[in-house]
Amino acid sequence: MPVKNRKQVISWCLFDFANSSYSAVISAVIFPVYFANYIVGNEAGLGDLWWGRAVSLSMIFIVLTSPFLGGIADLGGIRKRLLFIYTMLCISAVASFSLIHKGMIAEGFVLIILANIGMEGGFAFYNSFLPEIAEKEYHGRVSAWGYAVGYAGSILSLILALTLINRGYFDLTWLMISAFFGIFSLPAFLFLPADRQKDSSLMHAASKGMRDTWMTFKKIWTNKETRKFLISYFIFEDGVNTVIVFSSIFAATTLGFNTKELVMLYIVVQISALAGSFIMARPIDVRGPKKVVSLSLLMWSSVSILTYFAESKLHFWIIASIAGFGLGTVQAATRAFFTQFVPSEHESEYFGVYSMVGKSSAIFGPLLFGYISSSFGSQRPAILSVAVFFLAGLISLQSVKGGGPNVRDT
């Protein structure tokens, strides 16, 4: 494995394996349907509305804090510590899902926000380890490996969840996900590069981190290509986030998928995404992340339009399999693309901004989907609106210079 530290790369990938249990079971497949249809009730789109609000509010918090915490992590040398704190917040909140029952909308709403903050807030610190543990010419491949291993974690956690759900043990399912996340994240906290104390005063680091982060904003804004990349990323990531948040609810509400069918569907999607991540890992470096992202966005635009017309479960199975192939590809390639703009010693700070942009896009998409769904009394117009984000992001990305190959094809 041609990387700086094999143990660190494996540990970094295992963290994706761990947190993907949350992404699959809590964010994407089982808990959204459980909350929208059982805890709230979704006959008139009210469950969609509450779920969209919870996701959006948690993302607002991430947007407001990620760039500043990224600066603090760089200056104070507490990146790994902050990743641990956010991870424990997510694990604790998910375990608390076992305490909520039908009609406990407010309690579930608060716990969703806390869990999502813990999960999404840690990504800025997790992503920032990539430039440190892998050589530049292998950023694309290591990024893709992380997503591929993550999809394997999604598949395993969904299989485990399905065995519990088939017996009606929803409460134990949430506890299992907490344990899964905690156990498989341990190698990251043991073997990833240790925090290096750079400032004796945390308050001073916080103050200086905020000032430096503002300077980072200004620097990024004055760098034309970085600015254009982040604007494009903001647009198309809105579509990606919305699809992830609402795909299972759409399948259950509009097409009548039951829980077992949803889990099996998502497992197929994860296998497709895993295959896509491995197949496209080398092309990201050899052909360049920009070409790979563009191809993925074109695919996602087609998927959104086809979903609008889907009338049967079979149609949705086929569409979802195609979507899965592009899911890991667009995420891995985008992350690798951004590393080309990140200066050394400012990884956490820049990835804090990257996280802020990505998560801020997740504010509008879910809100828009929930609003359109409740207004029309149908999810089809809402899912069609997602295609606009992919097409607009694709067009915007073409003006960005960069994103070329990191290595020559040999």
Query: What gross morphology would you assign?
Result: globular
**Terminal CA distance:** 17 Å
Q: Give the helix/strand class.
A: mainly alpha
Q: Whole-number radius of gyration?
A: 20 Å
Helical coverage, percent range: over 70%
| Top CATH class | Mainly Alpha
Low-confidence stretches: none
Number of strands: 0
Q: Please give the domain count.
A: 1
Mean residue pLDDT: 84
Percent of residues in beta strands:
under 5%
Q: Helical element count?
A: 15
Q: Give the SSE order as H and E letters.
A: HHHHHHHHHHHHHHH
Assign the CATH topology.
Answer: Growth Hormone, Chain: A
Largest sheet: none
Please give a structural write-up.
The protein has 410 residues and is an all-alpha fold. It has one domain (6-397): MFS general substrate transporter like domains (Growth Hormone, Chain: A, Up-down Bundle), CATH 1.20.1250. It has 15 helices and no strands. The chain has helices at 6-40, 46-76, 79-96, 105-121, 123-127, 130-133, 139-165, 170-191, 202-222, 224-253, 259-286, 289-309, 313-339, 347-376, 380-397. Helix 10 (224-253) crosses helix 14 (347-376) and helix 12 runs antiparallel to helix 15 (380-397). The two termini are 17 Å apart. The model has no long low-confidence stretch (mean pLDDT 84).
